[in-house]
Amino acid sequence: MKTNFVLKSLAVALLATQLNFALAQAPATTTVPAVTLLLPEVIAKIGDRDVTLAEYNTLIRFMELRGQASPQNADQVKQLVESYIQQMAILASAQASGIEKDADFILQKQFAVNDLIINAYVAKTRKEIVVTDEEIKAAYDTEAARLKALPAVKKTEYKLTHILVKTKAEADKIIKEINDKKISFANAARRADPEKGGDLGWLQAETTLPGLIQGLEKLKGVKGFSKTPIQSEVGFHIVNLQDSRIPTILPLDQIKDPIRASLINQKLQNILQEQEKALNIKNLIP
Predict the structure, then answer these.
(1) Is the pTM of this model over 0.70?
(2) Strands 224-225 and 199-204, bridge-based pairing
(3) For residue range 3-39, what is the model confidence (pLDDT) as tens digits?
(4) What are the chain's domains?
């Protein structure tokens, strides 16, 4: 059975070939793994075609550009080469079939190339964005001041599971089933939500449905199954409150990286929006 490493490499290998190894012309910015140095100049043959070490090195470079790990030992190199050969064999058959002249393929290729260009440009733009320590500190201070000024009810976070239904009648029926011990709350929640069992994790008052938060506030921190459904903007919630808390503001050094990432995202959005404005785009659909 192929490892996950091989499976994740298959699509990368095929895309590298579709690009005709153009990246081989680009200056390398990473060191070729030592295990690569053990390979011969020709690592495989597909019919009369040689699969060369240079071709393999270009694949590794492409994988790194995509943020995928390169093989770190001889077994992984062997697995990657095997999967690459398999992909090249499929590619050869596909090209021989004339699939590249198919209208649907040409359309898909056009949009795939567009996506590649866009993603590469966005990644390059993001990489060039600079966020200073002063900007991070200013953002931290602003958010910390805002959180301190909030009333306690707005700061509170709630950990709960719930059962969401459309009507109060449905909610009352389920609550009666639970009260009559015909079903447990946990099983009722799994019946309604087989994947997560109604688990909502920790909810922040600021970012949660106002109706649900108002109902949770009325519980005044009393944990457990609430026999009264809570009506929100999306329906009726039967809740099992597991915990509540008012979170503390973490020190800057513990959240510096997430703040930096958030500021980079903000700057990136601003750059892209300014570029869009400069193009004078007009949507003519009313």
Answers:
(1) no
(2) unpaired
(3) 444 334 444 334 433 333 333 334 444 455 556 667 8
(4) 4-112 (no CATH), 152-245 (3.10.50.40)
